[in-house]
Amino acid sequence: MRIIFTFSALLVVAAGFGQPAKLFVNSKGKISADSVKAVAYIMEEKLGDSAYVISKYDLKHQPLSTGTYKDDQMTLPSGKFTIYGRYKPTNRETGKSVDQIVYRQSTGYYLNGAKTGTWIIFDDTGEKDYECTVENGKLNGPYQEFNPDNGKIDMDGNFENGKKEGDWNAYAWNDPKPVYTDVYKHGVIVRSILHTKPAVAPENLDRYLSRTLRQYIDTLKSMDVVVNLLLNESGRVDSLININKPLPDYMVKAIKAAFSNAPVFAPALHGDMPVKQAFVYNFTFSTPYRADSIGSVYSRHADEIGRGLNQAGIGKPVN
Q1: Which three-class secondary structure state does DSSP give residue 253?
Q2: Lower CB count within 10 Å: N or C terminus of the chain?
Q3: Per the domain annotation, does 108 fall within a domain?
């Protein structure tokens, strides 16, 4: 996710040390005396000759950002900043958005107007998404990406002057051993190493799902459903981590039960040893035109070798 900070030059009238001043902000990001046209407001507190703490809020008094500036026109951020995002979750039963949630989106430091040190980015559930190191305005140093379901590292590596360098490792679910490593030189992959042989779905899984979930065809037809499974060392489904669609609870339970009793997968192998592995399985119900058809499942599946290597989120560095 790309975090963009835009702060307009604002002329601030000093209100004295320790005395917060309330300033209105219009739709163009300019200070305005007209509260009617304001889209946000700022609380400014002067801490010293060159330290101004700014807290920005929307008109519902929900935080937008907090941080410290060296100048009263807020053009030179210097110090710790926290940026807040907005998220509207969806009700699983109705499919409609519910009340907006405010969450901490990112936190880190500026030094004389430039990002520096460790920056942590969070997802809309408040879980850590990724952590990076910034130096001289570029990514420099360790980078880690995290699994939102268990908080463990999904991927790690190192940046030099904004480019990936050295070993970049991808991990599966709860396994501290890397599944996959890409070796970079100046942002270019020079070698790839597959440490773990991925799990393989049984050939009759499609037919099994068609038979087991046939009663839900009317709801699921032409719907692309993605399930995230955790397979154990025996190739059995230990748990269904999540489903990508907002389905009714009874249908989620039916899908979970279907996969829990599914035919055995060929387990993933790290060397010669079977290991647990997260597994992404996509399936689509399609109702053919034949009147006697009960529908069928067309599936496509792929092993998960780390979110960061096969799916780059907005604003996340790729090379």
Answers
A1: helix
A2: C
A3: yes
